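Can anyone check this?
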Amino acid sequence: MATARARHILVDNEEICLELKQEIEGGADFAEIARNHSSCPSGREGGDLGEFGPGMMVKEFDEVVFSGELNTVLGPVKTQFGYHLLEVTERL
């Protein structure tokens, strides 16, 4: 079974999500942005979600994590929790 490692930033609205994505693409540190802005407890760890397999996250999240480009800021991805920026750091 495939597994992935990813980190993410969770915010309440798409506008903020897009602003943060632009900051990261402009050179801001993903982990620092996660620590300062993510509403997910993983934000304290720079957004790191560790290693997980398909079906362990919500469907919208899984679709991006297991098909998106590695080491690229992906999103915004809307889920029941809010808007996510994702970075898949490894797929095994």
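Reply from J.R.: I decoded it. Residues 32 and 46 are 6 Å apart (CA to CA).
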